[in-house]
Amino acid sequence: MKNIKNYIPGLVLVLIISLLSFFLNQSIKFINLEALTIAIIIGMFYNNTVGTQARFKPGISLSLKNILKLGIILMGFRIDSHVLLKLGPRFLILVVFYVLIALMISNLLGRFFNLNTRLATLIGIGSCICGASAVLAVAPCIRANDKDSVLAVSIVSFLGAIGVIVYSAIAVSGFVMTPVQYGTWAGLSLHGVAHAIAAAYAKGSESGEIGTFVKMTRVMMLVPVSLALSFVYNKRDGNVEKAKFPMYVLYFLIAGIVNSLGILPQSISHIFASAGSLFVLMAMTAMGLSVHFSQIKQGMGALMTGVLVFVVLSISSLFVVLHLV
Q: Alpha carbon of 101 to those of 108, 272, 309: distances in Å?
């Protein structure tokens, strides 16, 4: 564990940008962007103009990993089981179908753009499960090299950030979608956990709760998919590294059950949920501060693969959600 002092500069930067985003959201309502969306825009702008100095990176990394997970767990205290019952069993089928189709499309497009299969697989994994964290979890399972991992992380982080902006604009545009439909769509089709949550809450708390739950279901696909990919890429290698189950998903579900049963006083649940919102906002800021346009430019074929996977799956999932949810 690094000296705690190493984390302070980055945490302070992330907190300042997060509070600035919250202030802009409260003060300039005509923009119609949520604080989460504003945070990632400011983060990307800062990182690709001024540049994020090395002393900030430990705190940014902590926000992007540990603080995000803690925020997601605490966001479980927003979950109301009565809202989730509106989804029914169909959304589970949607999630499984979405993940399988995303992997197939990414590999087909990867062949078209002459990408190696591991890079194409990482882009597909990042697109259909949980963004950069899924890429980093699966990369050792398929023995992908560091260059492919960095490129895939940069692409899915960038596209997820763009997706938040586009989805948030759709949420406030008057496009005819119920909160349940919009939340399902955002949770089903955006890359990272923070991306999906940011976009889902752009249409209100109900859509946010639905989007968060659907996204957590996608995250749980990490383990079976990683096991399958480990077998495919390493069937001749007895020393196979497997991704671990994301325990924060389990804790998120427990928090949702506790909130739905009314075990804690409402005031305490509200405090936990508010803290979770702040932590996710900080993680979104860190996400923006981690996007490097220069790295993305190095792999235009990979970028086009990621873009087309996102566009195809976003449009097709929107069509399915509008007709089935």
A: 11, 36, 10
DSSP string, 217-249: HHHHTHHHHHHHHHHHHHTT-S----PPP-HHH
DSSP state of 113: T
Judge contact between 221 and 244, C-beta under 8 A.
no
**Dist. CA 291–CA 153, nearest whole Å:** 9
**Residue 98: which of 183, 156, 181, 185 has the closest Cα?**
185
Contacts of 188 (CB under 8 A, 6+ apart): 91, 94, 95, 98, 214, 215, 218, 317, 321
Instruction: Output the six-digit token pair for 10.
Output: 């980055």
H-type helices in 262-299, by residue range? 266-289, 293-297
**Structure-block tokens of residue 13:** 């930067």
Cα–Cα nearest to 38, from 154, 201, 147, 181: 201
Side chain identity at residue 24, one-letter code: L
DSSP assignment letter at 55 = G
Cα→Cα distances 302→46, 105, 112, 140, 171, Å: 24, 13, 10, 19, 29
Could you list the pLDDT tens digit for every one of the 325 residues in the chain? 457 888 999 999 999 999 998 888 777 654 445 676 678 788 888 988 888 888 999 999 898 778 878 887 887 787 666 655 656 677 778 788 888 888 999 999 999 998 888 899 999 998 988 787 778 777 777 878 767 877 887 788 888 888 988 998 898 887 878 988 999 999 999 988 778 888 898 888 888 888 888 887 887 777 788 778 877 776 645 555 555 666 776 787 788 788 878 888 888 988 998 898 888 788 878 878 877 777 676 688 889 999 999 999 999 999 988 887 6
pTM for the structure as a whole: 0.71
